[in-house]
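Attaching the record inline, Q. Sequence:
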Amino acid sequence: MRVRFLTVLAFGALACGPSAAALSLDLDVVMLEGSGWTRERALGVVREATAILAQCGVALDRMELRVLAVPPRLMDFSTPAARELARTYPAGRPAVYLVRDTRSRPAFDAEAIGRSNSRTRPEIADTVWMTAATRDPGIALAHELAHLLLDSGEHSEEAGNLMRDETSAGSTSLSAAQCTRLRETARANGLLK
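Structure, as predicted:
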């Protein structure tokens, strides 16, 4: 695999910067060349997602964007492809992989692999996988990062909640209880500092 370029961005490039009470998120983003993602779109999606997570006192401190040229068999998410990609080119955790499509069934546009659902695939723990066709990608990334930071696949029935089963522009809020649990769990798992 070849790395096409590497960009390290401080929080000031993507957000207003962390507040004194904020927990810091360092995020590695791996974009597959030819997947349908662009650098500008990836940055915009991360910017939108981290703005949503800011309501829980989480601020993006550092983001590293890597663009990889990979064989066609690794362009689409599947557990075997994800394992190979994560082993061959390891990224820090948490990590977001921007891929072309998915081969999983049922098919999801985006998927979070937390600690509680990675026992049989530990190589890809603490990762989010998003396809180029993901609807509302900034909101979807915030939703998947919340799953990851909460270490839970739980959804909410509450109107307007980010953790509803289907993401939408009108669903971006998290409850105080969700925020508390997100911060505590993510800190305990070493995903926020």
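The chain has one domain: 2-188. Confidence is low (pLDDT under 50) at residues 15-20.

More tomorrow.
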